[in-house]
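Holo model, flavin mononucleotide. Inputs:
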Amino acid sequence: MFQTPMADRIRNEGQVATIAVGAITEADQVNSVIASGRADLCAIGRPFMSDPAWLHRELARLGRGSVAWHPAMEPARTQFERVLAKPATPL
Ligand SMILES: Cc1cc2nc3c(=O)[nH]c(=O)nc-3n(C[C@H](O)[C@H](O)[C@H](O)COP(=O)(O)O)c2cc1C
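Output:
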């Protein structure tokens, strides 16, 4: 979350709405940035590039239901749901 301190200062000292971005990799980080008033929004860059299902994975991990899949992602949806439904493999 290396750029969040800048979003925080600009928002709270400059009274300008900000979007924090930069190595924000988990929904929990987004929630804490927003809840603590450090930014108005968070953007997710590289995590989405490495995992286009990032949003769906984070929602599932937090048990927060689902949102519509982008039409371009629809072919991946059933496979994603099958994989998520599998019990975790013991190490
Ligand atoms: C492919 C790519 C394109 C980017 N293009 C821009 C851009 O046009 N303008 C900008 O301000 N930042 C751009 N960035 C930087 C991101 O906004 C962001 O600061 C950076 O990727 C760190 O966030 P992340 O850890 O979520 O990827 C880009 C980053 C990537 C990986």
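DSSP finds five helices and two strands in the chain. The mean pLDDT is 91.
Archived with the compound record.
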